[in-house]
Fold:
Amino acid sequence: MRVLVTGGAGYIGSHTVLALLRAGHEVHVLDDFSNASPEALARVGAMTNGRIGLTRGDVRKDSALDAAMEGFGPEAVIHFAGKKAVGESESAPLLYYDINVGGTVALLAAMDRHGCGGIVFSSSATVYGSPDYLPLDEDHPTRPANPYGRTKLMSEGIIADWAGATDGASAISLRYFNPVGADVSARIGEDPIGVPDNLMPFIAQVAIGRRKELAIFGADWPTRDGTGERDYIHVSDLAEAHVAALAHVAGRTGYDVCNVGTGTGSTVLEMVAAFEAATGVAIPYRLTDRRPGDVKSYVASVDKARDLLGWESRRDLPDMCGSTWAWQQANPNGFRD
Ligand code: WQD
Structure:
């Protein structure tokens, strides 16, 4: 299929473009490179000898969207473009609503202008808020606790309404848990700007010597070892879930939602131990207070992804940690090397 990937130069986007090309799809990327590097796409192209169409532009702008769709004629869109930092969304909510929600509305209108009726949306498990039960299934109440999560839930609703009002439309929202790791080639990976918010890239920067030690946010959670538990999923598994979701979207009409995780939780201390075991690199850490807004545990129910998409994760913690370290060692300063 001809697939337009918004935000396709980003961490998850570039891994998904790689998986799409390997599955034989044609890809055009729309990205403003505000949080991504053109080098990521150059490397994906070099790995696949695939031609990747590119429009540099803002997903909110009709001119950029029309330029990306004119001529390429996408049959479906995978929509990653957006802001994704919970903390930043608290201090700059209007920016998040403008880009994440406004961008989704502009994209859907452009899809209508160009006769494109299929979309896979990059949503987030953050829409669930504090869990009533675990593992979190897709019927769990959605109570996002921050502007970022609210933009994701609003975008899901907008897409659902668009699908319901548009003949032949087909859409799915994928609720990601915690993506980590890098492609086995170590040519692409997570390259956060500034101090990493997330656990795995911070651990990787401690391991490479860019950070002195890891601060573990809270050791008094009611978990196995007192530290926070999350469902970490290898970014290549996540990318492959998008290929499966695209096939699902192509084969039906209507709207659906699906978690993308492994169904297994790991605590912070277990992640540190797994990273040390996989890499042989000691990770110094100190125990500090809980981070505002954190919850004790987030683990995905993965039954629907298996039944609806025929997809399951297949990479384990050693893969996640080993691939992160291979990427970080080969690219100590990310794509700026
Ligand atoms: C994981 C665990 C922290 C950093 C966020 C977003 C979510 C999604 C994924 C976009 C927690 C602990 C972390 C550190 C630590 N992003 N931690 N020291 O918060 O589960 O999810 O990223 O969709 O929307 O909310 O991920 O990696 O920040 O934290 O102890 O320096 O690691 O307390 O228990 P999180 P995270």
